[in-house]
Design goal:
The chain is an alpha/beta fold. The protein folds into 2 domains: 12-85 and 199-293, 3-Layer(aba) Sandwich (Rossmann fold), CATH 3.40.50.620; 88-165 and 180-191, Glutamyl-tRNA Synthetase, Domain 3 (Glutamyl-tRNA Synthetase, domain 3), CATH 3.90.800.10. It is 36% helix and 17% strand. The protein contains 10 helices and 14 strands. It has helices at 25-40, 59-72, 87-99, 110-119, 140-149, 158-165, 199-209, 224-234, 265-270, 275-283; strands at 12-15, 44-49, 81-82, 103-106, 124-125, 128-129, 153-156, 169-172, 176-179, 189-191, 214-218, 241-245, 248-249, 292-293. It has a 3-stranded parallel β-sheet with strand order 1-2-3, covered by helices on one side. A 3-stranded antiparallel β-sheet has the order 4-7-10. Helix 7 crosses helix 8 (224-234). The longest helix is centred in the first third of the chain and has 16 residues, at 25-40. It is globular. The chain starts with 11 loop residues before the first strand and ends with a strand. Residues 16-18, 50, 203, 217, 221 line the site of glutamic acid.
Length: 296
Amino acid sequence: MTSSGQLNRHIVARFAPSPNGLLHLGHAYAAMVAHDFARERGGRFLLRIEDIDSGRSRPEFVTAILEDLRWLGLVWDGDVIFQSGRLASYAAAAERLKAMGLLYPCFCTRSDLRQVQEDGPQPEGPDGPIYPGTCRHLAPELAGQRASVEPHSWRLDVAKASAVTGPLRWMDERHGERLSRPERLGDVILVPKDMPVAYHLAVTLDDARDGISHVVRGDDLFASTDIHRLLQALLDLPTPIYFHHPLLLDENGGKLSKSRDSASLSVLRKAGDDGYRLLQGLRSGHFPVGISLSQA
Ligand code: GLU
């Protein structure tokens, strides 16, 4: 509700954690920013569990996420959404992009890509080295034959896709208007070898399906939005407004991460800490010792 008590059905934000580890303070901050963004505008706040990676997602992490959010005092609207229940819609979108001739099978292994790196420096994108395009140049017949017998992922031909859509823009409430440059990420994988769908495709489809008006998430996903904008244009999906927020950093200025076991919320919760007070601290800019907020 707004201060005047009105529900604004047009504002919908979400928190979309991947249940492959325990949430840490950075997630508490991200969930709070998205939650408060929606509530301050009288909008709705959804919780979507991004559990497409069945190899790394665990039910116990889902349980911990729900308990952590309740402990923080963050209430979501409606049922929890699970991406694992939507696999058919991702497959259908991938088929549509294939039929448009915009995906190609990629047979490169991690070691093939490492070898390319060792043979000479490759262009770096915001998320690491850009795919060198090896399989983009395979003759379609050969690619088709190989695809029927060899494990492969499916990559988006970004140059070809951008030629279809022409120049694209999107709006970030914090950073301003942006001209998309998806080529900076290169030909990203949309269907991995060992997973039903990749993050970029699933998140773009679901933000549309869930009626998300404002995608509120961390600055670490800022560059990815250029790819999401491209997919929206290709698949006739609406473009939400974005709000990429700063990230919590550790004492070395690095991003907090699940793998580094950065102060997990469930450890604090089980130790009897007060989640609501912790969140109020983050809200008012009082971070635990050693934790700061990125500037960019
Ligand atoms: N599932 C993603 C993650 O946990 C976040 C997706 C998003 O907010 O767009 O990093």
